[in-house]
Amino acid sequence: MGMNETPGAERVHIGFFGKRNAGKSSVMNKVTGQDLAVVSDVKGTTTDPVYKSMELLPLGPVVMMDTPGIDDEGELGSLRVKKSYQVLNKTDVAVLVLDGKAGMSREDRMLLERIRKKNIPRILVLNKRDTLTEKEVGETLAGLPEGYQEGRDFLWVSAREGTGIHELKERLAALGSAGENQRKLLGDLLSPGDLVVLVVPVDKAAPKGRLILPQQQTIRDILDAGAVSVVIKEDRVKETLESLGKKPRLVITDSQVFERVSKDTPEEIPLTSFSILFARYKGNLETAAEGARALEKLKDGDKILISEGCTHHRQCGDIGTEKLPAWIRKYTGRKLEFSFTSGTQFPDELEEYSLIVHCGGCMLGEREMKYRLSCARDQGVPMTNYGILIAYMNGILERSLGWDGYFLQQ
């Protein structure tokens, strides 16, 4: 990601769905004005989801997602269909593209019902209008769900001629804006002039020459609030706090040095972590805090899933695959088994796990993070995140959430 690009998790994710040869890719290409997806008369040209970050006026930064046909056949075809349905988990606005002449099929209705149940803003696009007679138009309209209104619930377009595309872009902008996340990462906790100290370890896992995304986003939110940030390494906490002219409003630390920073930060100064702030931002703070307490119920042989939303090269001392398992085994004294996932990988079946430990989710959209939480909740598996679990194991969870549950009340 470039320094001036909006993080993917903060972009509106627009998914294009439909049967093979309904014109999903063609419609998406017309909307974007770019040949993002391969177009062909051969059924099943799109075999894997296609993602493209871009600016879509008048909406702004988006991720456009083209998907395999929901009527694909055979063993490979069923896997592609499954991938299409999985894309729904990260979709903020769904575009269901139909062949205007063929009308609405059983597969289209099933997908539309899934979209509705997930409460995803949606628009039905009837493609190939230029090829239809008025009689065929009437027959297609008669097969739509009862009460559907043109302009609000569905639109006629022709990807070949470009008609209706402007109206579709305007509708996407309206649907995308309606679902924008209005929460702040921490700006609502700050006043202009407040001082915030950020503790950023620089070890082997730190990217060379730059800060990682959660740190960048936190600094930007502090700037937007008119506050002041001071960025230091973990070995300068005590010295820095003593030299400042006033008490910081907040100290925010990387989770892996939580214990050390807590010892060097006076009790009267609020302390939390980047991971905890992101749990608050994604709306899963209370659930994650409760999930950490599941450590006390673990038994020998229990399985723990550690999941990260991003993909990166694992290095010696990696927090997810090395440090966390070691800390959990030491805290519980149990012989435990660990599984690891990263990126878009997240199991549908979770019942074999006694606990899920997730990263802060800075690379995941709010909808996908909530989907993962709901999967865990529905299957009765407690779920927490890195920062909250580390704070709990170090006996500083209550402090890191703020006195009297300060952050929980925001």
Descriptors:
Rossmann fold, 3 domains, 6-stranded mixed β-sheet, 410 residues, alpha/beta
Short structural summary:
This protein is an alpha/beta fold and 410 residues long. It has helices at residues 24-32, 74-87, 106-117, 134-142, 165-178, 213-224, 237-243, 258-264, 274-282, 285-292, 319-332, 366-378, 386-393, 397-401; strands at 12-18, 50-56, 60-66, 93-99, 122-127, 154-156, 195-199, 228-232, 250-253, 271-273, 303-308, 337-342, 353-358, 383-385.
Describe how the helices and strands are arranged.
Blueprint lengths: L11 E7 L5 H9 L17 E7 L3 E7 L7 H14 L5 E7 L6 H12 L4 E6 L6 H9 L11 E3 L8 H14 L16 E5 L13 H12 L3 E5 L4 H7 L6 E4 L4 H7 L6 E3 H9 L2 H8 L10 E6 L10 H14 L4 E6 L10 E6 L7 H13 L4 E3 H8 L3 H5 L9
Parallel strand pairs: 1-3, 1-4, 4-5, 5-6, 7-8, 7-9, 9-10, 11-12, 11-13, 13-14
Antiparallel strand pairs: 2-3
